[in-house]
Structures are given as structure tokens and as C-alpha cells.
TrEMBL record:
This is HAD family hydrolase. One of its GO terms (cellular component) is cytosol. The keyword Hydrolase applies. GO terms for biological process: DNA repair. It comes from Streptomyces luteoverticillatus (Streptoverticillium luteoverticillatus). Keywords: Hydrolase. InterPro entries: HAD-like_hydrolase_sf, HAD-like_sf, HAD-SF_hydro_IA, HAD_sf, PGP-like_dom2. It holds the Pfam family Hydrolase. The keyword Transferase does not apply. It comes from the Bacteria. One of its GO terms (molecular function) is phosphoglycolate phosphatase activity.
Amino acid sequence: MTTAARSPHPRAAVFDVDGTLVDTNYLHAVCWWEAFQQQGHRVAMTDIHHTVGMGSGRLLDRLLGEDRDHEGDDALDAAHKSLYATYFDRLPVLDGAADLLRALADRDWRIVLATSAQGSELEALRRAIGADDAIRDATSADDVDASKPAPDPVRQALEDADVPPERALFVGDTVWDVEAARRAEVGCVALLSGGIGRAELEEAGAIAVYRDPAALLADLDASPFGRMERA
């Protein structure tokens, strides 16, 4: 792998976290399923999995309907958070995640996380990744008005990086990530590590698809990142 020369024009690499850097999408699905069970809702696991990546409000709208009784939303959200917190000390980082962030930082990319996680959850994810030395900033659900697939998290990440959309790439694992990046006018490199198929990601607008962070790292020079460096 070559090392790119320092660029006078900064570039941003914006990363989703769940399913992209840490192997947590199915953990979220199980925890949401259990939270729904506790509140008397029957929701299919496959439907839950396909909403992971949205903020909790959008997720509940999609799974339970916007016309539901919203009085139970706080209890559902709290149950999911409590169940998920039991995994904080053993969150499985995906192969190559930390190395990919450091490799891009070494190539003069500004690394910003854009995630629906917040508070102690985000702290646990960053501990699992173990690459805070490469991360410039992190945008969480607390920092934006609307979660993915709205473009707000990506736009906030670009603002944090002080980089325009045409000098940035987003890396995510769901169609909601791809849609958020597209609406923010940022190219999205998608990973299969979140459990969403290649065809769905490409149909949503992903400009390249890789198995996981390690596969993207191995192909970095030929990837959209390498092409942007040479442009």
C-alpha cells in the first residue's frame, strides 16, 4: 500500500460505527426484539434488522407505525439501551477497523464518526475500536435534529471536519447510511459487515462495496479513497 502525499486541500473520511467498524447490528436486533417482547409487541427479527442504523424514533415509526400510542416509546428505548449495555465490555470490533482508520489518517484524511449512538454507548464503541488517536471527532444523535436516513449526521460530520462534500467519502453498512450520504452529496463506500446484501446497497447508490474494513484496507489504493487522492 502506498502512502499519499500530504494534500493542501483537506479530505474527510466519515464513518458509521455500528455494523461498519463494530460488529453490533445483530446485537441491536436481538436487544430491540427483547425490548418489544417486554412491552407486548410481536415484531419479526428480520424487520428489526433492516431498521438498524436509524435513530430510535425512526426505527419505532417504521416497525410500530407512526399512528401508534407514543406513550410507550421511552420504555422501549430504555429497555433496548439497558439490554445492549450488557455487551459494553465485549463489543466485537470488525477485522481491520482500527488499522483502516489509522491508515486513512496517515494519508491525511480527517476521520469523523457519524453514529446514532450516544453517551456511554458511544464511549463503549470507541473503546472497542481502540483508535481514538486517529479519530478527529464524532457526531452522535445528540448533535443533530434528525437521524439517518436524513443527511443531518453526515452534514454535521463534514462541518466538524471543516471539509466540503466533494472532498469527503462516507463509509457505512446499511441502505440508510447510503441514503444519508447521497442526500448530503457525499459518495458512500458500503460494507457487507452489517448483514445487508450487495444488491440492496448498490441499488441505494453505494459507489463501491467491500466485505468489511479489512477488505477495504487491502484495496485502499484502488478504492474510491485512492482515486480521490489521485484526482
